[in-house]
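Researcher: Here's a chain I'd like modeled. Treat it as a single chain, no partners, no ligands.
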Amino acid sequence: MPFLDATTVMQSQEFIRLQALIETWVTVAQALVATIGALAFVLAFLWKMTAVDTRAILQSKQWIQRIVVGTIGVEMASVLVKVLTGSIPHA
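Model: Modeled as a single isolated chain. Structure tokens:
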């Protein structure tokens, strides 16, 4: 097993800090998108329930679908970030 020098240990510590920073920002972005997405979903649902015109009902259903797909996309992006940062070999 090779010995670790000071540079390798320092790079490893920097990598750990960078990875923690990325995970923190991903968590913040997820929380922000989830909050906005939940509010948009509730508003679109209320729009659907109170709409009289069939065209407005169809539009609200389309918005609900977009919100759901966007939420799934954010979740998939966060999984991708975790996979990519986890695949980087530590020094």
